[in-house]
Design brief:
With 122 residues, this protein is of the alpha+beta class. The chain has helices at 3-22, 71-87, and strands at 26-34, 37-45, 48-58, 94-103, 109-119. The chain has two helices and five strands; from the N terminus they run αβββαββ.
Length: 122
C-alpha cells in the first residue's frame, strides 16, 4: 500500500472515530490485529460490541466506499470479530458496521455515513 493510501485510510478512520464518539459510541480499540486480519475500530454502544470497518474513497472511480466491502472482505471481518471475542473471552451481543467516508477528487469531505449491521453472515 502506498503512503498516500495509508494516509487517506488513517484520515478516514479518524473521521469515523470522531463521528462514532459524537453519536455515543465508546471507542475501545483502533486497528486491532490478529492472524486473520485487522479491525479498524472496536467500539461499544451500551451492552453491544460494535466492530467497525472504515472504507474511505476519493472520487467514485472505484465506486462508493461501501462497494469495497466485498463478500470475501465481509467474511474476513466476521472472522476477525469472532477472533476478538475469543481473544478477550467475551460472550456479548455484537455486530459489524461499516463507516463510509467519501471525499471529492480535491479532498473535500462529501459524506461520512454509518451503516449499522452492514456486514452479516453470508
Amino acid at each position: 500500500m502506498t503512503n498516500d493510501r495509508k494516509r487517506l485510510g488513517a484520515w478516514g478512520e479518524s473521521v469515523a472515530a470522531t463521528y462514532l464518539e459524537a453519536h455515543g459510541y465508546r471507542l475501545l480499540q483502533r486497528n486491532w490485529r490478529c492472524a486473520y486480519g485487522e479491525m479498524d475500530i472496536v467500539a461499544q454502544q451500551g451492552d453491544l460490541l460494535v466492530f467497525v470497518e472504515v472504507k474511505t474513497r476519493r472520487g467514485r472511480g472505484q465506486g462508493t466506499p461501501e462497494d469495497g466491502v466485498t463478500p470475501r472482505k465481509a467474511e474476513r471481518l466476521l472472522t476477525v470479530a469472532q477472533a476478538y471475542l475469543l481473544a478477550h473471552d467475551l460472550d456479548v451481543p455484537w455486530r459489524v458496521d461499516v463507516v463510509a467516508v467519501e471525499l471529492d477528487t480535491r479532498g473535500k469531505l462529501l459524506r461520512c455515513e454509518h451503516l449499522p449491521g452492514a456486514v452479516s453472515e453470508w
